[in-house]
Amino acid sequence: MDGGCKTSVGLMTSVDESSKEKFTVRSAAHSWGVIRPAIEAKIGCINVTTLGQENEGRELIVCRSLGEYGLDICGISETKWKGKGTRDVIWTENGKKQGYTIFYSGVGEKEKAYGGVAIAVKSSLASSVSAWDAIDERLMWVRFNADNVPTTFISCYAPTDVAEKKDKDSFYDVLERIIQEVPGRDSLVVFGDFNARVGRNNKSWEGVLGMHGLNEEMTDNGRRLLELCSSHSLCVASTFFRHKRVHKYTHYSRNAQHTKSQIDHILVRKRWITSVRDTRVYRGADFCGTDHRLLIARTMAKLKTKKPTPNHKINLDRLNDPNFRKDFELNVKNRFEALVDELSDTETLWSSVKEVTVNLALEVCGKRHKKRDEWLNEDIIQLAEKKKNLFKKWLSVKERQKNVTNKVNKAQEEYKKANRACIKAARRAKAEYVERKGKELEEHTRRHNTRGVYQTIKELGGARGHQWGLK
């Protein structure tokens, strides 16, 4: 594990967030004057067990599930991806493009796949990311330079309770250094799979735990997490909201006892707890058979920066058509003759020539739309929908007919079969897509079409490796 903390966020003196008065949501709002923007952001975290290899297409299934729940940011644990970088996941639904940019951090390329963390950011928010860093296979962070308050997200995957003491110490030492270097004015969110049961002793951990935690025994990891929260004025958000127990369990163990626990958490700074509207588990979200459940916090936070002026790219390929080229030349000639008669100043003439040329090119050639040969077809969408419905059916049978083992097993087997079929179809479609693009690449190379070669490579690779603020 990396002993140092590589970070692009400047080291600043933290705001003293301690308070002598009893901490409550109301007192925090009055004493700190919390900003309450009128925009709701949904933040989540999930342990997916694995995102598979690049050609399997699991990341698309996961991102579609995130899109169904309207998540803006999601911390993903145990991706088992190697290396570090970004990947764009795009799909079209009801004629509208949707997608996420996944920032990820994992073990080295030559190491055995293990752990791995990521942060999925809605595509419309990706441009607001001002810096990010991949620490190791257990920790990474992303910072948003939002309009009102900068926000830093730290994604975590902590060692289990049975892990060696030195591994736990190393993880929390690195996490503490990252938190210390986050500016005190930032809104801070730390989320992920902490493998920590924190219990509900809110009297001993006043301000850190709310009144609605689960009545379960605190573990060693739970104690370490609460000590970290206490040292850095953090709250365990899910314990501040009253919900049914089934909406608090984040992990359903596959052991003989079928243990249920709350080990995935979303932590926020005390001064920002009033901006969190709700935090609960959504059991219906399906992530390729993981034994964890999606935890979502609804917050009042504006993550997006001001919309930049659109930079329209002109579809110059249309000029290869003689009809379009002739039309363009004729229009340019007519417009330029009028300009020369009207203007004599060189600077003004140049500005006018530039403006007329660009506007005329847009008018005749049109805008270049980003084309993406998507491998996601209707068959896969239907299989994914069937899998999701069977997953919900299995959950329903487990709750209502606990004692009828054969019905529960049958529902579980039906879901597993549908899940395998969906993954197999996605893998096959992705392989066909890559093969088709490979043939296109060969054809462009044979014709010495450099632009076509570059475009095909870009479509195959997406934005992978494009890193904001990565050192």
- Going by CATH, the architecture of one domain would be 4-Layer Sandwich
**In angstroms, what separates the terminal alpha carbons?**
17 Å
Into which percent range does the helicity of residues fall?
25-40%
SSE string, helix = H, strand = E?
HEHEEEEEEEHEHEEEEEEHHHHH
CATH top level class name of one domain = Alpha Beta
CATH topology category name of one domain: Deoxyribonuclease I, Chain A
- Sequence of strands across the biggest β-sheet: 3-4-5-2-1-15-14
Largest sheet: 7 strands, mixed
* Percent of residues in beta strands: 15-25%
Arithmetic mean of pLDDT = 80
Radius of gyration computed on alpha carbons: 26 Å
In DSSP terms (H or I, runs of 4 or more residues), the helix count works out at 9
Shape label:
globular
Could you state the CATH homologous superfamily of one domain?
A: Endonuclease/exonuclease/phosphatase
Category by helix and strand content: alpha+beta
Give the total of beta strands. 15
Low-confidence runs:
1-37, 463-471
